[in-house]
Design a protein that fits this description.
four-stranded antiparallel beta sheet, alpha+beta, 499 residues, 11 strands
Amino acid sequence: MNYTAVRNNVPVPIESIPILEYETFLEQNIILAGKPDNHCVNYYGHRAGNKIRLICCMASDMEMMIYVSSSLINSSKPLPSFTRHRHSFEKFEREIAENFGISYIDHPWLKPVRYAFDRHDRKQEISGYPFFRFHGDETHEVGVGPIHAGIIEPGHFRFMCNGEQILHLEIQLGYQHRGIERLFIEKDNLLSRTVLAESIAGDTVAGHTAAFVNLWEGLCGYQSDEGSKLTRTLGLELERVAVHTGDMSALCTDIAWQLGSSVYGRLRTPVINFFQSWCGNRLAKGLIRAGKNNYPLTGELKEELLKIFEEFLPAFHQVNKEASRLPSVLSRFERTGILTGHQAADIGAVGMTARMCGIRRDIRLSHPHDLYPVLGHQPVLKHHGDVYSRFQIRREEIKQSIGYIKKIMENIPEVNHDGRNWKSEPMAGQFSVSLVEGWRGEICHCAITGENGRLVHYKIKDPSFHNWLALALAVRNNEISDFPVCNKSFNLSHCGHDL
């Protein structure tokens, strides 16, 4: 095979990545994607002189490696698509087409993804999005948005219905653009870039920041100390506990079970308040930094967190017990919003969306970083792919994360000040991939440095990029009144998608 095998957060010279003829590039990655334990973690392009260099990163979950290959193409020449062979490349190629004006001769759904400011064709405007349409005397369309009533995020949902039954849902995003990937190049100091990472998705501060700092330290040849690893791992698992608990509250709200809504909502509060005690911000902004640990865990903080869990768990177990036996809850959760295992594999689903269909896709297992290698993580799997499966995975992952947190706090390392004088200068001519399992699923950051060590390209992928299509597939043949609970059970990111 013509690829470079890369480990998570370990940079390689950009010159070591093979540049293949496009037909060879396509064939190789289609073969790799056909193996059950492989999936595409990123596929994108960047300008290389007057051509476009396509870079494809295929992860092997069994080998704990990422296979990276590339191809130089002329944007004016139509290309055969990866999507024609593997549907999981669908959105990656749509983004490439939008950004660079590349046309694919056999892509089945070649529509703009984001309407980014720097899109190739500025004549393409979001108001002219080419929605799929049904025709028939008994069909009708229902539009929702463009502002989400709960989270006040922009996005438009177009339902094609037969009576109350959803036949098709098309999700149109792309209303907001902060130009975050471009800003990573334009900013010239580490702090500004770290703050950018914290702002990619407001509910995934620990996830995206951990991805950035791990990638940056790797590019600089720096090995983080045990205290920093503890901070990052603890931050990621606490973020998972907090958001999952809040999502369980929101799901109960959507089915009008007030007790569950109130109890889960109350339990979330002390968890995010702990972040406030730890680093001064309830969303963990400021907590994770490259090359240093501004907020090392102390014995006092450990005792505070253990007390929170001591009060959290009894109420959590009790409300879980109630939820699992109430017919009014189960009738709304079970067999609602089903995504099949075949569909999840076909679209390249990640995170909880994959694991609810029995797919063992979890970066903590397949490409572990920080303290995950010593935790012996085993993913929580369900097999029915419905709202209740997503509810159950949240419930079990909360308990699992609390167990991990208690384990890693057993031995708090001494504060290491050696990294405070490190020189945060990346090595020249490098390529690196950073993978993190955020609470939603797989986060991927990729970077390329130039001859002087400065960033010349930065690429971000939030797990929502994979999983929005999963929501659209899951609501088919459901009642339109079930859409809120289906949507909340995935809880995907608008801003993480639009960047």
